[in-house]
Design goal:
With 90 residues, the chain is of the alpha+beta class. 57% of the residues lie in helices and 16% in strands. The chain has a single domain, classed as Winged helix-like DNA-binding domain superfamily/Winged helix DNA-binding domain (Arc Repressor Mutant, subunit A), CATH 1.10.10.10.
Length: 90
């Protein structure tokens, strides 16, 4: 679970997760949304993959990233319970 907290600690990674919550994106689409370098975005994506929050699939010459919703939903539920909220957060 430590990798998940590390992944969520960074605002850029949280923004990437928010983007992917709206739908799958390839690496170029994700990188275009930021002013940081493509290698930096790639590093953020690798951290999210290591934390098992995103899935990456090669499609032709592109890598398409998608949110692993079950892991993401579990984290939201945990955070909600830590905040003392019992209702469903999704």
């Amino acid at each position: 679970m430590g990798d998940v907290w590390k992944a969520l600690a960074d605002p850029t990674r949280r923004e990437i997760l928010a983007m992917l919550r709206k739908g799958d994106k390839n690496a170029g689409e994700i990188a275009d949304a930021f002013t940081i370098s493509k290698p930096s975005v790639s590093n953020h994506l690798n951290i999210l993959k290591q934390a098992d929050l995103v899935d990456a699939k090669k499609q032709g010459q592109n890598v398409v990233y998608s949110l692993k919703t079950s892991v993401f939903e579990d984290m939201l539920q945990l955070l909600s319970s830590l905040a003392g909220r019992e209702e469903d957060v999704l």
